[in-house]
């Protein structure tokens, strides 16, 4: 077994041992040929496509089941998490192609549909919105980006400045994952590193980032670029927290507060039925 494969199994085992909110219902389905997991937890007033993080090399619907369940409960959503293909076995654009296939299947129903992603999933959410715009497809009603990884060049402004306070990820780990994901492609490709993309025309964005993490610069640049081209942008830096602290929902008040903020943002931009 490769190190990557073991890393994926270990993360899944750890994540799946965590308790879920009471009333969580999990189901498997296939959308656009891609295996997905749906999570509900109480009344549903819309849908959310959640793109999981993990540096494009790990993570799955199982590692993000708890986050999906708390989002489902707090925001009253059906949360759909695709099991998109991972690098290095499947480099760019495999994961993006999977996300786009799922999106097109979901958009066969024109009802309310939002988008979210954490870490690499935040970067993938941005890439998906760019692909949707290129193809003239119906965009999400809104998108929430949680500690997004949006610059895979390794030149982000906070990588060294925040290295001493970062507790979850490392620059070496990011650089290795970036090489695995990009394959032979240029790391500055706008759908690999969306900090280099034209964000004109994107839907309303909520962007969360911790003040102590090394991806602070990625989030700040995306927020600045989006605001500069007129995209509705709700950007917040949360001091004293860690990379994607949202996963601690149900245990950490700041995580519950962040998810409540996301729920309000999605609700305020929900497309009328």
UniProtKB/TrEMBL annotation:
A GO MF label: triacylglycerol lipase activity
Residues at the catalytic site: 119
Species classification: Bacteria, Pseudomonadati, Pseudomonadota, Alphaproteobacteria, Rhodobacterales
Domain of life: Bacteria
Name assigned to this protein: Acetylesterase
Domain Alpha/beta hydrolase fold-3: 49-246
PANTHER family named among the record's database cross-references: AB HYDROLASE SUPERFAMILY PROTEIN C4A8.06C (PTHR48081), ACETYL-HYDROLASE LIPR-RELATED (PTHR48081:SF30)
Pfam families referenced in this protein's UniProt entry, alphabetically: Abhydrolase_3 (PF07859)
Keywords for the protein's UniProt record, in alphabetical order: Hydrolase
